[in-house]
Design a protein that fits this description.
globular, alpha/beta, Methyltransferase, methyltransferase, Methyltransf_25, Rossmann fold
Length: about 270
């Protein structure tokens, strides 16, 4: 995982991203029969938003991320039984021990997926599970149901980013002309997992958003993280705020969260 993916984005993440569905922890608890025992490993945890929400379901939790600023943000609010580690997913198991559940939320596609899948499989205790949180928090649902305020003008924001950074999507120090990779199911099965079991985990909540939050949303993304703009970051933000002012003179926006599904993978029996 490229440590430069989100350089400068950590302080914008919590304000910029939409919340995970409130019912997600209960869906995970009921779906996996969690009873407060065992530990959670949250891989690519960012500033620890989801880690904190799920930690009460376990006896302990560890959040790991390749970005030192994300881990620094996570450590600003200490929680008993919750540990933060600055390391790349490819460095696992890193002496962390075994876990009942490993979660990946908006992170696995950035990693050496076959390697990480194999290494995490060896870290799961008997009966343990890998959970991919399939849902995005950086963009609302594209439905046509009415909202109380205008939706952020995503297409115009994307066009502004391209005007500054060029037509090919950026990601850390690399370019992604084809976007992020697919084929997760094949990788998981090749690494010795069965599944996935699908657990619908909510969504569809409408959130009111300020212009500041929409700006933070843009800066929380890998393809428009602050470092990519270099000395022009202030100029970009001014143009972005002008765009938002035109889209909603009141400075208020609204977004409906997308549906989230938990994809549960379990290690198959026996060695690979």
């Amino acid at each position: 995982m490229n440590e430069a993916l989100y350089t400068g984005a950590a302080r914008y993440y919590a304000a910029g991203r939409l919340p995970y569905p409130a019912e997600l922890p209960e869906v995970l608890r009921a779906g996996l029969g969690l009873d407060g025992r065992g530990r959670l490993l949250d891989v690519g945890c960012g500033p620890g938003t989801l880690t904190r929400e799920l930690a009460p379901l376990f006896a302990g939790a560890v959040g790991v991320d390749a970005d030192p600023d994300m881990i620094a943000e996570a450590r600003r609010s200490p929680v008993d039984g919750l540990e933060w580690r600055h390391l790349r997913a490819e460095e696992l198991p890193a002496g962390l021990g075994t876990f009942r559940v490993a979660t990946f939320a908006q992170s696995f596609h950035w990693m050496d997926r076959p390697l990480v899948a194999r290494r995490v499989r060896g870290m799961l205790e008997p009966g343990g599970a890998w959970v991919h949180v399939d849902g995005i928090t950086h963009r609302g649902d594209d439905g046509t149901d009415p909202l109380p305020h205008p939706e952020p003008p995503h297409e115009a924001i994307d066009a502004l980013v391209r005007r500054y950074l060029g037509p090919v999507r950026r990601a850390g120090t690399a370019l992604l002309p084809q976007g992020t990779p697919a084929g997760e199911a094949e990788i998981m099965r090749a690494a010795g997992y069965t599944g996935p079991e699908r657990l619908p985990a909510g969504g569809g909540t409408v959130y009111e958003r300020s212009a500041d939050q929409v700006v933070a949303q843009a800066f929380s993304l890998s393809w428009s993280a602050p470092h990519l703009f270099g000395a022009r970051v202030g100029e970009f933000e001014r143009d972005l705020r002008d765009l938002l002012r035109d889209a909603s003179p009141s400075g208020r926006f609204a977004q409906r969260s997308r549906e989230t599904v938990l994809l549960v993978w379990r290690p198959s029996e026996g060695p690979l």
